[in-house]
Amino acid sequence: MNKTFQRIFAKAKSENKSCFVGFVTGMDPDYESSKQILIELSKYCSVLEIGVSFNTSTSDSSIIMSANDRAIKSGAKTEKIFQLIKDVKREITSDTAFVTMGYLNQIHVYGIERYIEDCKKSGVDGCIVVDSNNEAPEDDQIFKELTKNNMAFIKLIAPTNDSNYIKQSLKKCSSWVYIVSYAGVTGSKDVNLNNVKKLSKMIRKQSKIPIGVGFGIKSLDDVKKASKLADLVVCGSSIVEKIKEGSQNGLDSKNLAQFVGQYVKQLSEGVKH
Amino acid sequence: MNKTFQRIFAKAKSENKSCFVGFVTGMDPDYESSKQILIELSKYCSVLEIGVSFNTSTSDSSIIMSANDRAIKSGAKTEKIFQLIKDVKREITSDTAFVTMGYLNQIHVYGIERYIEDCKKSGVDGCIVVDSNNEAPEDDQIFKELTKNNMAFIKLIAPTNDSNYIKQSLKKCSSWVYIVSYAGVTGSKDVNLNNVKKLSKMIRKQSKIPIGVGFGIKSLDDVKKASKLADLVVCGSSIVEKIKEGSQNGLDSKNLAQFVGQYVKQLSEGVKH
Amino acid sequence: MKIPPFKEHNPPDNLGYWTNKKTGEKYGGQYISPLLIPNLKKVETGFKKAMKNKKFLADLEEQLVNHIGIVTPILRSKELEEIAGGEKKVGKIFLKRTDLHHDSSHKPVSAFSSVFFAKHILKAKKIITETGASMNARAVASACAKLNLSVEVHIGALDAEKVSLNKDITELYGADIKVCHDSTKSLLPAMAAALRSWQSDPTAMYVVGSVCGPHPYPLMVRTFASIIGRIAKKQMKDLIGKSPSTVFAVCGGGSNLSAISYPFYNEKSVDIFGIESAGKGIASGAHAATITSKAPIGILLGARSNVLMDADGQVDPSETEASGLDFSGTGPEICYMASTGRIKFRATTDKEAQETFLMMCKKTGILPAIEACYVIHAALKEIKKRKNPKENHLIHLCGSGESNVARMLKYKKDNE
Amino acid sequence: MKIPPFKEHNPPDNLGYWTNKKTGEKYGGQYISPLLIPNLKKVETGFKKAMKNKKFLADLEEQLVNHIGIVTPILRSKELEEIAGGEKKVGKIFLKRTDLHHDSSHKPVSAFSSVFFAKHILKAKKIITETGASMNARAVASACAKLNLSVEVHIGALDAEKVSLNKDITELYGADIKVCHDSTKSLLPAMAAALRSWQSDPTAMYVVGSVCGPHPYPLMVRTFASIIGRIAKKQMKDLIGKSPSTVFAVCGGGSNLSAISYPFYNEKSVDIFGIESAGKGIASGAHAATITSKAPIGILLGARSNVLMDADGQVDPSETEASGLDFSGTGPEICYMASTGRIKFRATTDKEAQETFLMMCKKTGILPAIEACYVIHAALKEIKKRKNPKENHLIHLCGSGESNVARMLKYKKDNE
Lengths: 273, 273, 416, 416
Ligand SMILES: Cc1ncc(COP(=O)(O)O)c(C=O)c1O
Ligand SMILES: Cc1ncc(COP(=O)(O)O)c(C=O)c1O
What we know:
- Chain A is α/β, with parallel strands linked by helices and about 270 residues long.
- Chain A has one domain: TIM Barrel.
- In chain A, about 50% of the residues lie in helices and about 15% in strands.
- Chain A has 12 helices and 9 strands.
- Chain A has helices at about 5-15, 30-40, 60-75, 80-90, 105-110, 110-120, 135-150, 165-170, 195-205, 220-230, 235-250, 255-270; strands at about 20-25, 45-50, 95-100, 125-130, 150-155, 155, 175-180, 210-215, 230-235.
- In chain A, helix 2 (about 30-40) packs across helix 4, helix 6 (about 110-120) packs parallel to helix 7 (about 135-150) and helix 11 (about 235-250) packs antiparallel against helix 12 (about 255-270).
- The longest helix of chain A is centred in the C-terminal third of the chain and has 16 residues, at about 255-270.
- Chain C has 16 helices and 14 strands.
- In chain C, the strands form 4 sheets. Chain C has a 6-stranded mixed β-sheet with strand order 3-4-14-9-10-13, with helices on both faces. A 4-stranded parallel β-sheet of chain C has the order 7-6-5-8.
- In chain C, a hairpin with a 2-residue loop joins strand 11 (about 295-300) and strand 12 (about 305).
- The longest helix of chain C is centred in the C-terminal third of the chain and has 17 residues, at about 370-385.
- The chains are: A alpha/beta (about 270), C alpha/beta (about 425).
- Chains in contact: A-D, B-C, C-D.
- Chains C and D meet through helix 2, strand 3, helix 6, helix 8 and helix 14 of C and helix 2, strand 3, helix 6, helix 8 and helix 14 of D.
- Bound molecules: pyridoxal-5'-phosphate (2 copies).
- The site of one pyridoxal-5'-phosphate has 20 residues of chain D, from helix 6 and helix 12.
């Protein structure tokens, strides 16, 4: 297990809570605001999941795609996201884990080895690659590089995946596994805890790996319920919506960070057991 | 030969001239104007050819079709045309021959027998039926009825017709035959006197029937030249154009008749040899 | 596929008349100004020659097969059988898919044949035709482009103003479009204008878009078009071992009706139906149902036939949603066949046709020409009435509806 | 006609990859969120079952023959031979006329097959697809209407605003049109939206309009579509006693190219050409010529293949007059065939295609889809260059141009 995650899980355990994971698209709505938001969010989040924008992503909701658009318009590039993470890490003191979330094309174009090296250099602790198929040669290579660098490879598992698929995924999954609570797109429905229970059971049969839950978590109540079932609770779309709201209202980067931070703060309180 | 034409031809011969044939669409632009026009024209025309409008005629130029439209709009019907001719004849003193010109559908719908009876009653001396095919049973019937009533059946012959067709036509043609000076539509080209010469020669081989010429005669000069070759000179489109011009200028029926009359008067002077 | 050769089994007399022996009524003939007589004689002689010219007929057939794509399938439509009550109640329904032809209707068959004839037999340099924004001019212009003849298309000013896919395609094929401002500014005066133009240019050939006009056009067009029926008859034989019980086709001028039904004229067991447009309803007077409304005999555009007209013989304009049916007459042979009862007539209103259009799109995945919807509606009605599970019904799906899409989508939205 | 059965002779590996043995480069695969994996596995297993299910294959073929009208003619075009320099210099030119299909392009073959598969093998109740106002959605919607499945069509907001005959017809067929406001509001985000929608509804089936997308789509679509080539190959054999010297097809996603050329892959004597849209010129950057412009390998919409993209991996929008070619990628098997040199690539500019469109209308009487004009132009150029009177050239005329008429008539008038 990645060292940062090891510490984070230990700390959470000691505090009798789950870990709160906050997702934002890197450089949404721009570099400086995104930096301030991440700095602010690091106070409330055990894990920061940072989206690397792809303009032709196949699994993002319209909410995330709009965030991607905003980020790309403000100049988001893979390199810049690494820069952003470095800048943020330089300014924070909390022991927060950083995870990149993106699509394979970006990584492939950047070069898998180089991507993971640069992750490492920027202080990234793990990667989510939404469309990296377990059986693809690229997936093997990513797994190899991440493992070599002691970083987490976080795999998504959906309620429609069969046990064979889960087994396959878990083979390469490290630090934690991400359960998608329903078959749909992020932000489109309410979190489905029955699915989570069922999937957790299947996973637990094979592994003790910490379990994260995402998709549809957007209220304090959602967080509370989810944290009863999972080690990590991921909240994305609703944070991204806040960023959009605040920036549309013309807030400058500091105020925007405050505005989003307040929202995340109250959400994150739900992870206490 | 019809009696009126007999007299007219005799008179023309004695005066050393051809006969001037003036064409108007009956009831163009309306009943009263048309009546006045015909009365006025009777002073200058040996023959008045009166068009019975058909809204789907296949051989009229746009000029004549517009006249047909005006006439139909003002209520032209076969019956009314007969009424018009009767009214005109009541008011004139000149020995003018009257000929109807039209399409078979009107006559067929009216009834061939009835049509020719009503022609007779109205003082019509002959008929032109543009689309009555020599070989059609209707053509035989029209020929029979006209002959019985001593009226002229005036057949058209075109430069493209062969000698066999001419022979067929002349069999039923009486009083005079109408040479079309070119293969085209009325008013579209200039009169073609070479065609007239050629056709006259072919006709003369078979018959002594008087010859009329039409299509493209629109100036005094045209009339002069045509009258050297033919016993009758037919002028249509250019008279119809005058009617249109005068009525568009708002002339009342008397003034319109004068206006058209003056034009026809000067044209008609060309028939002197 | 070996296409059965043409056999004449309903010839007109020498003058181009079909005579009803019971009533003595004549249909057809050649009522036209002497100026056009030579042109028509040339076509008449040429056509007789052509029908005996084996090379001409073989070359034409080759082009019809490979360019027009005349061997279109016959589709058994279980969807329509369902709608009519199920195969077990009403028998089988087959669609002859001439919508799949080049230029998307039955029209290209006679249009291409006529132009091919004009080029190779008459040695004409130019083609003259008319359109009411329907399929004919497009098909003629296409044939002229391929056969390298110039083409002049007469269109009424009112029709020219309307947005029309067929007209635009006609232009792309290189046709010289002549706008006619005469009379009603619609199809009839445009036809007259085309005839007049031919009268001025005897080296051109006039092409008629249906089985109408003076002799020999009605004979020639149905003879050329009947290859559709010859193929269909053979296909039905292959499919069901015999001829169908019924044949249904829409009837504007009558070309697609004679195209498919001509080869069945002598088979008494085959009921033939011609379907007209009842427009807003026969009683309203706004329709194109010459036969169904019992229009009297008149002489229209060179032929003796039933004609929509008033008591004085002025031709009444037809009214219908389908530009291809918007014609005040019907071809003389068809009128004759109607008078003998060999072809039975029905009429469908515009509204019924429009609903059928939407139904066809949604239930069969076929975008029919609006013209074809008149026949489909009437056929389903008749098939339901016959209620005979042993029967096989053949419907002529005579065109595809690309040019109807804009109006029909508006209709759909207005009626939702 | 007895249609030769399908034979697999260029299979991908189990994971859906075609691997270039020289370079080691892989094409294809299944790069997609875990949420879609089960859906894809279902399609994969279903497709394997379907290809062994004789009744399914026979029923499908019957419908393709009688409903889609798949046995279209091959037309020898002497007009195009003339233009290329005459038969005596350049040999014979043949056109495979899939423009005569139901719904006027090659697309309905794979679209209908996919929907038929979804209904009978997967027992799906709903179909999801996308469109850029091209032929695919129309064909899918038609199949769904006939087969009584509901259908959801995703379209970019910008494309939805444009007047489009294909879109209107798609609506008449009863499709539920979902407008996508994401990203560039064009085809790519609409495809992503379709995939997301499928992710939410695993009882639906996603239909891809070309040989693109994650495994097994590229394999499945080309397998279904290849019936076009199987028929064409047999027809050529009947016509000239052998296979053609060349096969030309346009390449957007690559479906019509693989459709016609797949059965010739193993015949070394047959030169195969894929033609892309060079848009305003390759150098301008405004084009859709993935292969010709030597676009790098990327992972687009679930598959590894050549992709128009910037240095950071953002996909570049393609630009072309032809909505059917307006795609930033190319199907993986095609990319593979390009990498081995088995398929040679050429590109035609929009301007050249537009001029070819006008030429085809005026010289051949055929209204081609603008997409087909890219291949015709390039084929004529290549044929002139080869200058071999013994050759027989086969060009895939993959669609009819009704939906291009408005823009092309404007182009014609603007350039007169
Ligand atoms: C598709 C279609 N069907 C039918 C017709 C009616 O004509 P006809 O009765 O001559 O077949 C037309 C005329 O344009 C047409 O385009
Ligand atoms: C007529 C036509 N040709 C070609 C294409 C290009 O697609 P593909 O390369 O998949 O055949 C399309 C796409 O819509 C099309 O409609």
